[in-house]
Each structure stands twice: as structure tokens, then as C-alpha cells.
Amino acid sequence: MRTSFSIKMLLGVLVAAVVAGCGGASDSNEDGASGGNADASTTLTLVAYSTPQVVYDEATPAFAKTAEGKGVGFKTSYGGSGDQSRAVEAGLKADVVAFSLAPDVDRLVDAGLVASDWASAQHDGMVSDSVVVLATRKGNPKGIKTWDDLLKPGVQVVTPNPFSSGGAKWNLMAAYGAKSEVDKNPDAGLAFLRELISEHVKVQDKSAREALQSFLGGQGDVLIAYENEAITAQQEGEDVDYVVPDDTILIENPVAVTKDAAPQAKAFLEYLWSPAGQQTFADHGYRPVDEDLLKTVQDSGKFPTPPGLFTIADLGGWDAVNDAFFDVEHGSVAKIEEDAGVSTAK
Predict the structure, then answer these.
(1) CA-CA distance, 297 to 53, in Å (whole number)?
(2) What is the SS3 assignment for 196?
């Protein structure tokens, strides 16, 4: 067990690292005070997980052009969801937080930084949805179609570290849920994860975006990823295909304002939930939480619903999942990762 002094020192280093990273690294970006608005009189700080950067790069200047966003600029920081949440907890300034999963917001509730009723906002506080998919090289040369195909001899898999990345937790719970028949056979689900991690996952990056970059750089045969990440990679001309497994999990991404946020922060959230904001998410491969827009895009043939789609609630909810799987001392996935030589430090 670390002492409280060690934890404080570690969090201090983490904050410094995140702040230092806000200006050039692929997982970080700082727009400065203007955020696309040269006349900005108010600057909102957005701290987010890595994958929706392409969305917020469009949404922040678009909001600044609205009546509610007039005079608003943005500073932004991107990284692994868990790392970003812990950095805000430790003192990194944020007006708006956009994370991969709800517990990363709840951490800030416990720290007194976000109101406890954040999930009573529109769409239960969620701003986008997705599903976990299997991204492959162009043409799918390994013939990857199902979760079982990940365990074929010689297949190497890329997925990030679940102790820094929210996306990694979604990935592993998608695999576990599929192979356990949504928790009906937990031993089968854990056996699959053990073989996957110990035999087929060679590198676990800190964030989903870093994992994508590793895959695009030539590592691995399959990337377990958000559907939107695979779509964005295709939109950017990368030679990737992807498969939506018949059994996979619905990813639900939260957004919230902090208690000390500037008043315009709530208006920004309202913009993200507006038809224009939701369309931006849809344009970049996210499934909109706006039901009317989702129906429209599904009617056009986009975002089909997998026959075996399940949710984190079907697995007991995040509190139960984090305790059972990701608790550093007692979690089943933590033990699998430690046995594989992967860091579970937070």
C-alpha cells in the first residue's frame, strides 16, 4: 500500500505531466485562450479522454459562433480517461469534463468538484454512445470475425491499459460479456480474458488514442476499439477495416461541468446535446444519444444494432464491475494483468 504522502506526490507529478503535455503531443492539445475565437473574453477549460478530440476540435469553435457561445474560447487537454480524471481530482483546472465512463466523473463527485446530480441532466449525463469493435488491417487478412478469432495462433492484439484508459475497460468488459454470455458463465469470460491478455496482447498503451496510433504504426493484427475510432481512422485514409461482433457492449460516454465552472460551461453542454452538436458526434462515428437523430442515421444504414448488444448495467453496473474486475488488490483483471507483467498502478 502506498502512503498518503506518496499518493499526493504521485498525483502532483501526474498533474504536472498533463499540464506539460497540453501543447503538442498527439494525445494532448491546447488551443489557448482563443479556441478559434479571437475576441474571446471567457475561456473554458475542457479536460477529456483522448478519442473525441476530433469532435471537440469542431464543436468548440462551432459553439463560439452561437449566441450563447459568443466571446468564449477554449483550452483543451486530452489523455487516458482515468488519468485525466485523477489529474482533475489532483488540481488540474477544468470547467467541462468529458470522460470515457461514468466512474471517472463520480471520482470528481467524491472529490467535491462535480455536483452529485450530474447524471440527472439530459440523456442521463451521457453525450455520445458507441460499441466495441475489432479493427483489422485492410482486407482483414487474418479473417477476424468473432471474439474467438482473437485467440487464433499467431494473432496479436492491441488494446490499452485498463488502469489508465477507460476505453480499455470497455474493451475488456465487451470481451468478458460476450464470452460469459453476459455474466451467466463468469469462469468462461475470465478464462478468455486470461488467454487474450497473457498470450495475444503484447503492448498496452496508456490511452485508446495511443493504442490506435500503435496499431496504425504496424503493431498487432487486431485493435480492440471504439467503433468511432475505426470510422475516424477510415475517414482519415488509413488502411483499416473493422468488424462489429454479434455480441458486444454499448459504450456510454459522460460529460459534466464542475462546480466552479464559468456559467457558459452549461451552455456548452446544451450545445453538445443539440441537433448540431449531436450531428458532429455522428459525423465522426459516434452513435448520437439524441434518439431522433440516431433513428435517422440508422434508417440510412449506419450504426446497425448488434443482435447481442448488452450494457454495463447488464453486468452489474460500474461499481460492481470495478470492484470485481479492476480493484488493484482483489480484482480478477488486475490479477491477470499482474501475472502478465502489466502495470496496474493508478
Answers:
(1) 22
(2) helix
Please name the residues in contact with 246: beta carbons below 8 A apart, sequence gap of 6 or more.
146, 306, 307, 308
Confidence of residue 9 (pLDDT cuts 50, 70, 90): very low
Strands 240-243 and 72-79: unpaired
3-state class (DSSP) for residue 14: helix
The residue type found at 334 is: A
* E strands in 4-71: 42-49
Provide the residue count of the chain. Answer: 346
Q: Which residues pair with 48 in a beta bridge?
A: 78, 98
**pTM of the model as a whole:** 0.87
Q: What pLDDT score does 43 carry?
A: 97
Reference 50, options 26, 74, 31, 73; nearest CA is 26
**143: which 3 cell numbers?**
479473417
Give the C-alpha separation, 222 to 202, whole Å: 12
Between CA 11 and CA 14 the distance in angstroms is 5
Say if strands 42-49 and 72-79 run parallel, antiparallel, or are unpaired. Answer: parallel
HSE-up of residue 4 (Cα within 13 Å, Cβ side): 0
- What domains are defined for the chain? 4-128+253-299 (3.40.190.10), 129-249+308-339 (3.40.190.10)
